[in-house]
Each structure stands twice: as structure tokens, then as C-alpha cells.
Amino acid sequence: MSHPALLPVPAAVSWRSTPAFALTETTAITGPRDAGTAVADALATRTGVRPRLATADPGDAASGPAEGAIDLRVEAGGAPESYRIRVDADRIAVTAPDAAGLFYAAQTLAQLATSTADGWTIAAVDIDDAPRFGYRGVMLDVARHFHSVATVRAFIDRAALLKFNHLHLHLSDDQGWRLALRSRPELTAHAAGTSVGGDPGGFYTQDDWADIVAYAAARHLTVVPEIDVPGHTHAVGLAYPALAADPVLSEHVLETVAAFGGAEPTPGVAYDGMAVGFSSLKIHDEATYAFLADVFGELARLTPGPYLHVGGDEALGTPPEDFALFMSRVTRLVADLGKTPITWHEAGAAAGLAPDTIGQYWGFVTPTDGMDEKTRTFVRNGAQVILSPADAIYLDMKETPDSPLGLTWANGTTSLERAYAWEPTAIVAGIGEGDILGVEAPLWTETVRDLDDIDQLAFPRITAAAEVAWSPQHHPDRTWTSFAARVAGQAAHWDAAGIRYHRSAQVAWDAPASADDSAPGAHEVA
Ligand code: TNX
Fold it and tell me: What pLDDT, on the 0 to 100 scale, is given for residue 525?
């Protein structure tokens, strides 16, 4: 490819045939300090050449003449998170209406850098870019397998490169509770010790949590914490037995136990299997709501972002009328805390949700079982939805049948092409562009133990999610052929960054397979 591969593709790119900008150690960056640092970091990571900061603080500037200048400016006027880049031989001008826009320009500049016989250059180009959706999310399940702060930071780094702006952390499930709360210390004392398959557990201290939130914020990601209720709460029962209903061992639960192993869910015993939908909080006990007031109250204080996710999925151990009552109460509790509740789409079956509750759709690209109708409830209430169609954007689905990692329940395997070739406005009838807050790519971690596992499932498909979330629907390069060619160009960068990725057979990779690609990807779940 003659031009560098841009991912996600910017809204408007026009290449010029005038000479390129030469990037050297004496290239000076002027403008706001944070943005200047982001540009220097992004270019240094990509090229090994770190331009110098000549930002607001003149004491920073190294001596010596600048060979060129990268000038960053905040200028009122554009859409939120948008940016413009103009590259000429002697100057790169970047403007954006906000700090996020300058940060995304930094990511694009890094992708523009090209290695030539004369060193690193940036081709003459005009870029005018803005995101399609305001919510561009990735989710990491830290409950099925606990993932360290270092792993979460690495996941944030990857997401930021692709212009995602929300990190949803699934903090509690049947298998464990992963955030220390001062109001309810028994949770992490008794319910954080293990992960699926008997693997080690863990939890975040409040300092860890502050670290994650700040690390994300510095990269323009808002953290969306999820405490999943009323189902997915077996672990709560380890700490507070009086709050937990008896497990409901449906046929589905017993089949999952038979297929994937582990013991049947047993009250008071840590659960390390993969079944879902057997646990429930007690719905008609006021102690449950005192618990929720403590948990969400503290979570609200710990979370600067506007959203608290309350789960509500697969509550098959909760009778339907009880579920409706419960979802109405928990969403109102969160709204009264001044936060916007998010629920999985099942809560759309409940009348009386807090009116601004956002619904997250996890059904298929072609909805089944009335999932579309439940999702329309949120829009009828006057709120928006987040789309996470499982058979397109669930990063924990196997990409190919031989993948040692991942699951297949969402219509079998999800190829890179399937991950790319879907359109948000075509999923749920009656839900159009304006009803969609954004899209999110969840990574559930039943089979995922560490960062290498995360990377192997996420890459390259996370780039498809990024492009669906960011790039315009109608655009000459929004085609599978263009996308696959642009993905091919990433292999060398991912190799250099230590990001393991699946060498999808659908891509004509530019870089040769690295030495350890033949090694077994990871561990099969027993
Ligand atoms: C469904 S989709 C779940 C999770 C599982 C995931 C595995 C949804 C909201 N819940 O509990 O981890 O499948 O793919």
C-alpha cells in the first residue's frame, strides 16, 4: 500500500503529492503540554524518534534549532473529539476543539509515520476527522478471571490507540467480587479468592481503582464500573449468605456444568465453573436494598464518570415479576445518586426503570427471542442504547474453530470479516442513529487468563469494533477489502509492541509470522 494504513479510517483524508515532513529528534512540538506529551509518546513508540517538547513552559525546550514544528492548538468550533491535521514539508498543524481531539490526532500522527531511506517521514496530507459515536467502548471481565492493574493498564493502552473512549469493567460475578469497598469489606475478604477453573483470584484496592481511573482518564477513557445484579451474584452469598437466594439448577445450568466441568453451584462454596443464570439476590428482603445502597453509593463516590452499570443480564434464577421490581428499584437508586444507569437489554422487560437508563444490547445481529423488543423499551423511555451484538463484537467468541481460547455460543465462530461487516442502525428495527449512544466490544474471560490471552482474542477483531464505532457509515474505505488491507499493515507494529494477535487467514499479512506464533496460544479451560 502506498499510503500508511489508518485504523479506524478517518472521516476525510486527502493526500497531497508535495514533499513529506521529516521527523527528527529536533522536531519541536508546540501547544498544550498534555497533548504535546501524547504526540511525543505516540511518535516515539511508533518510530523510536522522540520529537522535543517546546510547549507552554519554555524551560522544557532543549536548545538548538527546530527542523520542523508540530503545532497543536485547541480551537473552538468542531464536533467533540474531532481534530484536523495538515501536514506540509516544514510544518504539521493540528487543531481540535478539545483535549480528546488532540489526543486522537496524536494516534493518527503515529499511524502516518513512515520509515524511508531518509529516516521517518509524515506524508503531506489533510485529515478532517470526527467520531461517528460518542460512546466507543471495550469491556473487560475481571470477575471470571481476575486481571491485574498492569494488565488493565495494558488493555487501556491498546484501546486508546484505537480511539476507544470508554472502559467497562465487569467487577462482580458468580465467580468473584473484585473491588474493595469500605462499606462492605466482607465482599473482598470472602468472595475474591478464586477465578474460573480454580485459578487465582484477586481484587482491586481503592488505590488500585484510583490508579485505573486516572490511567484511563489520561488516555481519554471513562471507566464504566459494573456490579452485576440481581443474577451473577453467587459470590455475594459467600460474604452475605442472608442476601442470596438458593441457586436454581436449571437444565441449562446442569448442561453447562457437564460440558465445561467444575462443581455444581453450592451455597457458601466459591464457584469456579462457567454456568450462568443460577444465582439471585433475594428480591423481597429490604436487606438487599440496604446492600445495594452501600455498594452503588460507594461506587458512585469512587467513579468520576457519569455511568454505573447494574447488569441485569441472564437473571434466570429470578422470577420475572421480581426481576422487574428489582430493576426498577436498582436503576432508580443509581439515578438518585446522580449517575446514569446502564443495564443489559433484558431489563427492557421491566416497567418502571429510571427513565434515563441506557440499555446494552447483547443479542445477535439478527435479533432473536424478543431481544429487540426489550431493547426498544429504552428508546421509548427517551434514553439511548449501546450495541454489543454478540455474534459480531464479542471478543471472547472463537475466531476459528481451532482456537484454544474463547467460546462459540454466539452463532459459532466470529471471523474478522463477521466482526467488521455489520451496521449498528441495521440491528434493531426502530432504533436509528440518534438512538444509539455507541458500540462496545466486550471480552468475557471464562477462558482468558492473562494479557497474551486477551490480545490473542482481541486482535485483530478489536480494530473492526473501533472502525464501526469511529468511522462514518458511508465512506469509500469503509469496505471489507480496504479494512483487511489496512489490518495487514498493523502486524509489524503489533509485533514491535509485543501484542499477540491471531493471524486471521482472511488477511494478507504484511509482516512474516513471528517466531513464537506456532507456540500454543494459551491454555484450554478444563
Ligand atoms: C453471556 S451476554 C454473558 C456473560 C458470559 C458471556 C460469555 C451477557 C450480558 N452475559 O455472563 O460471560 O456470555 O460469552
Answer: 36
